Amino acid sequence: MNITPTRTLAVSSVATALAPLAASAAAGAFDDVIGTVSSGLNTIIIFLFLVATVIFLFGVVRYISAAGDEEKTKEARQMIIWGIIFLAVMVAVWGFVNIVLDFIFGSETPFVIPGAGNVPSQP
């Protein structure tokens, strides 16, 4: 195996980033670690849903502004399709992970939509 400085830097960076998590897990704070990781992943999920929605909407805008040009219409259609596929995969993976977690931990709680607590509701 060829060890390069880049690979060494990458491994040491990951180890340095995960060291506090390992230390707190060793101290008996496993629930805190899981909560921190879950919170971080929920933030990433929200960001990825946002990116997929922007890709889809940008494709729609490009499709409308193509004005009959076949090449631009084709590119915009591909962007719309990829945005829909990305959204569908995100929803499917999110649902699958929640089903597996409910099966493993038996928590029988309703699905929690990441970031839904920040949405204002009507009285």
TrEMBL record:
Signal sequence extent: 1-25
Keywords for this protein: Membrane, Signal, Transmembrane, Transmembrane helix
Stretches that traverse the bilayer: 43-67, 79-101
InterPro entries, alphabetized: T4SS_pilin
Pfam families tied to this protein: T4SS_pilin
Ranges in a coiled coil: none
Protein name, UniProt field: DUF4190 domain-containing protein
Organism name: Candidatus Ryanbacteria bacterium RIFCSPHIGHO2_01_FULL_45_22
